Amino acid sequence: MRVIPLLAVLLALLAAAPANAATKSLTASSGDVAATLSWRTGGIFVRDIRLQIVRAGLAVFDQQLLDDSGEPAIDLPQKLRVRDLDGDGEPEVVADLYTNGAHCCLYSLIYRYVASTPAAYHAVLHLWGNVGYRLKDLDGNGLPELESADDRFAYAFTSFAGSGFPIQIWRYSGSDFEAGLVDVTTSFPALVRKDAVAWWKVYVRARGKRFGDVRGVLAAWLADKYRLGEKADGLHKLALIRKAGYLDGDAGWPSGRRYVAELKKFLEQLGYD
Known about the structure:
Shape: elongated
Order of helices and strands: HEEEEEEEEEEEEHHHH
Number of domains: 2
Radius of gyration: 22 Å
Number of strands: 12
Largest sheet: 4 strands, antiparallel
Distance between the termini: 59 Å
Number of helices: 5
Strand content: 25-35%
Strand order of the largest sheet: 1-2-3-4
């Protein structure tokens, strides 16, 4: 009996037009810019995801979303926003999508207007992983920041459920040279400190308990301490915690002295140090 490859089955399912297929859409607008993100449901995945942008009454952008390989995207749209992210008076279009799966992944496509090009709008991609983000004006200057957390800490020192994710705050830059998100977390020390306090409280509640693996939350706490310029104090406290025997846990991840060494190396590699 001939076995049909899984890829062929998936392609056949995508090509089929289920009887219950329906078209859904999200719309958003700001000033003279309006956007519509539409897609078709039915079957395992969504399909025919299309973004249309109208500016000053003219349809200037109408494209199907593609994945990294150039194939039609099948990720589930979540939100659509039209908002001036960088204060230049020209709204950006932000499409949020989800790849499906137990622990991944959320990402954003941020489109900026470029009048001198045929496509009119160019996109940059930002991956959020498991954590997503919140759009909010954190400093009251009239421009929104994107408040998130560092997904790179997932599984780094313990299971996903026990992992901690230190705060990350981003700001969009529409520079012609390098448009995209810029990490501005250190510009918000009060929020970083609040995050560090929260992780410390989680550690205190969990330490010494039978299933109280604190290695993940302490990694996030120490990352915040680094951000605050309190590396020495953080490492001193971590040494005391190690001596108290709280850094043991599942052998699949480093513990004890090795945990401390691996965490210091990890934070340095990620640019926290």
